[in-house]
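User: Hi! I'm working on a homework problem where we have to compare a predicted structure to a textbook description. Could you give me the structure for the chain below?
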Amino acid sequence: MDLPPPQKRKRSSSPPPPSFPPSAAPIDLSFLEAIEKSQQNVIETLDLKTLKKLALSLERRLNSNTAARLKYPDNPDKFADSELELHDELQKLKILAGAPELYPDLVSIGTVNSITGLLNHDNTDIAIDAVTLLQDLTDADVIEDNEDSALVLVDALVENSAVELLVQNLSRLSDSDPDESAAIYNTLSTIENLIEVKPSVSELVCEKTKLLKWLQARIKVREFDSNKQYASEILAILLQNSAANQKRFGQMNGVDTLLQAVAMYKSKDPKTGDEEEMVENLFDCLCCVLMPLENKERFVKAEGVELMIIIMNQKKLCYGSAIKALDFAMTSYPPACERFVDVMGLKTAFPAFMGKVPLSKKNKKKFQKEEFKERLISLIASLFGGILRGSRRERLLSKFVENECEKIDRLMELYMRYSNRVRAETERIDQIEFDDLELDEDEKYNRKLDSGLYTLQLIAVILGHLWTSEHTRMRARIELLLKQQKLTKKDVKDVLQEYHDNIGDLDGPEERERAQSRILKFISALA
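Assistant: Happy to help. Predicted structure tokens:
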């Protein structure tokens, strides 16, 4: 089951401006004058010679500051000037973001090691300067057309423990200080940049640092702010494509943390667009962490099924996200399906399946997205796959008989909608091949999946479950509706056969064989 990327915040070279009260302290003019002075000698021509000059100047200021601190460890006045000069040198180095092609030279002359070391500087302001510089150098817009040079830089940063030092520095930064709050933002931005250039950093940062623990603590904070929003996005990025990170976060009681975070929105909607984006990120995190089997078990034990049903019953903005989380929890995990039935989940899910959900105008527009219809279909297919016998199975099947089989009518309506989409895409593929543009079988199949083939296959699977129940009334209704659409059971069998032939072995060869055997049973019954 694929998960869409986390909600990406609009990238910026600087963090959101902090809010200052009317009684904020007066601006330090002497500091601004020092900044202005440092900018008077900005170097316009940037080449290797200039780079070496900048690097040498940084090393001199760094050595001077180190010597002053060693000589006068208890007298800050003695090394304050050298730190202001070091600050100025770090500001000058930002010009390198305009020439990413020089990054390999920056690495070869050893400057990256010096910059990285400054992340651990005793003066937090200098460490913040180093963070800001790294954020600028690795910014996505800067390195967009210089991927090879960017990779050289990122490899050097990783080798010099920049990842560990960035996370370590987070522990001494506070959101209550505007400058440090901005540095938190820039640190998260830098980590995101590193992952974009070198995806393996995603697992490395979780293995070698306490970033997951820091993010976990950050999303526990009840009050919303931009850094909590960004923390939710980074957590989603770390969890999205890494089974190791998903399992690691689950072992840290991460499932319960995420349930507590989304529970705050069970009966209220986010107040702003940014807060709404954060909530969507939190649900994405929950869906990611629910992929390993052991985390599904933790979800059920933590009463996650019940919470998602409560959220659905409240009919707020998180309605569709709760459906998505349940879909992930119930996929290939019968205990979650059983719990869902036991806590009256059928009574909540099927009105949604029928489109009978009295949501507000704003929330209804979101819920009407195709994704939510497809999630509901997947959820019902999971229920049939996870509950194979007993009273729960009977309760599930009875839903398709009540009210004159209206849910079978709805199922066939959706079958036709997705069948028509897939047919139209198949015709487009045929036209492409007619125009002498070749597509291999995988490309053809993927294009059909993008047009809705997988949802069509799940609907056919549900029809297979209904048919093999041998319920006379349901069979008669299915045949009648097929006939009205000038279709036969063979059309459903063809969809099932294509599904059978393309079942992968992501969950192992034994699970693949079981799934194929089940589909063959449906095909045989529809003969």
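For your comparison, note the following. The CA atoms of residues 55 and 360 lie 59 Å apart. The longest helix spans residues 402-434. Good luck with the assignment!
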